[in-house]
Amino acid sequence: MSRYRLAPSPAQEAVLLRHCSDARYVWNLAVEQQGWWRPGRKPAPGYLAQCRQLTTARAENAWLAAGSQMVQQQALLDFDQAMRNFFNGTHRKPTWRKAGRDEGFRIVAVRPAHIRRLNRNAGLVMVPKVGWVRFRLSRPVPEGVKSFRVTRDRAGRWHAAFAHIPGRVAGPGTGEIVGIDRGVKVTLALSDGTTFLAPAPVSFGRVQRQLARATRGSNRRARVKRRLARLQVRNADARKDWTEKTSTTIARRYDRIRIEDLRIRNMTRSAKRTVEEPGRNVRAKAGLNRSILRQNWGMFATRLEYKAAGRVERVNPAYTSQTCSHCKTLDREARESQAVFRCRACGYCGNADVNAARNIAAGHAVNVRGGDRIAGPENREPQRELLLVSSLESLAF
User: Fold this and answer.
1) Smaller CB count within 10 Å for the chain: N or C?
2) Gap between the Cα atoms of 44 and 351, Å rounded
3) Please, is 283 exposed, middle or buried when counting C-beta atoms within 10 Å of its C-beta (0-12, 13-18, 19+)?
4) Which candidate in 78, 103, 181, 331 is catalytic?
5) What is the pLDDT of residue 336?
6) Options 22, 78, 103, 260, the catalytic residue
7) SS (H, E, C) the chain
8) Which is catalytic among the residues 78, 103, 305, 353?
């Protein structure tokens, strides 16, 4: 998807909001129909049946017929695809869309004449019932565009995303292998010593306190809410821009990329638990969850796997931060601090994140079979039977 910033006039913005409202209304009707289903009842109507129902509803309701039929039908098609993704197990079940949060619609049957270049910095795109809408020409529009999606974020910014499949990023052809360790203090640590830090977020605690003190429904609360939304989207845009640039840089620099296979959803799960069995250190765990999510681990891995398709391998992260990359000795006490790793067996000292990245670059899960172990507590219980056998064999020789 190639996204561009729209600059609609006030009259055009009113029609765009009407399209968003129609698409959200049709989507929520489809969600309601899907919620009626119970075991033993007939299945919920599919896309074709819902299109026939939409035609009947447009004939009976003038306010619905005043909207764009394309926008409303595409909302049903989007819902049908969302249900397919849910049944395939790749996405969650589609839920209700809310005004102010889920604002957008899709336009199809786009022809080359529907997109024009106005000048060096601006272009025009044709939107049904809206007309020619100006957008910022930050880069050339891809050729062969057949559809695009118009969205409005919480900060009130309009964007047009043209459907386009970008090409893959080619590797250097040198055969170089790199391991990537993801962390909170250091976002990405590579096995060759290179590190990448995600952009620091803009603080908006003061604005949040102002929002908490504002009266619900007041104009002041609306202004503070828009100000908070602008700060939040600024942080999100900065993280996304950093993710795209960093993933492209790594995909171009290395031929084989190995990354930790992390379960981010499980790692950022809340510690509240239940009233009967409350969790411990809930506030600290919530802060850790926010720190992890700010690093964009998941988006980085997804974009990297797409750009370097077939060249990315996921590695089991077990013991990678507790094992010496030189002698393969497993020792939890070797990590003196967040940044320092000092092996008590061979004397190697270096950056702890880079040491873990080198273990990841080895291409397999680091476990007790990979080397010796110095006695001490560990996060994961090693295979003690194998350790006993290996020690007896060494004594025999």
Assistant:
1) C
2) 57
3) exposed
4) 181
5) 84
6) 260
7) CEEEEECCCHHHHHHHHHHHHHHHHHHHHHHHHHHCCCCCCCCCCCHHHHHHHHHHHHHHCHHHHCCCHHHHHHHHHHHHHHHHHHHHCCCCCCCCCCCCCCEEEEECCCCHHHEEECCCCEEEEEECCCEEEEEECCCCCCCCCCCEEEEECCCCCEEEEECCCCCCCCCCCCCCEEEEEECCCCCEEECCCCEECCCCCCCCHHHHHHHHHCCCCCHHHHHHHHHHHHHHHHHHHHHHHHHHHHHHHHHHHCCEEEEECCCHHHHCCCCCECCCCECCCHHHHHHHHHHHHHCCHHHHHHHHHHHCCCCEEEECCCCCCCECCCCCCECHHHECCCCEEECCCCCCEEEHHHHHHHHHHCCCCCCHHHCCECCCCCCCCCCHHHHHHHHHHHHHC
8) 353
Is 260 among the catalytic positions? yes
Structure confidence by residue, pLDDT tens digits, 162-201: 998 888 888 888 889 999 999 999 999 999 999 999 998 8
Dihedral angle computed from the Cα positions of residues 285, 291, 297 and 298, in that order, rounded to the nearest 10 degrees: 60
- Token output for 276: 């009967």
Encoded tokens for 377:
């507590």
Left, alpha or beta for 51 (phi > 0: left; psi -120 to 50: alpha)? alpha
80 is catalytic: no
Give the DSSP H or E segment for 116: strand 115-117
Q: Which amino acid does the sequence have at 208?
A: Q
Angstrom CA distances, 290 to 183, 211, 287, stand at 13, 20, 5
CA 354/CA 361 separation, integer angstroms: 10
- DSSP per-residue codes, 92-113: PPP----TTTSEEEEE-S--GG
| Predicted TM-score of the model (pTM) | 0.79
Would you place residue 386 in the very low, low, confident or very high pLDDT band (cuts 50, 70, 90)? Answer: very low
Residue 377 clears pLDDT 80, i.e. is over it: no
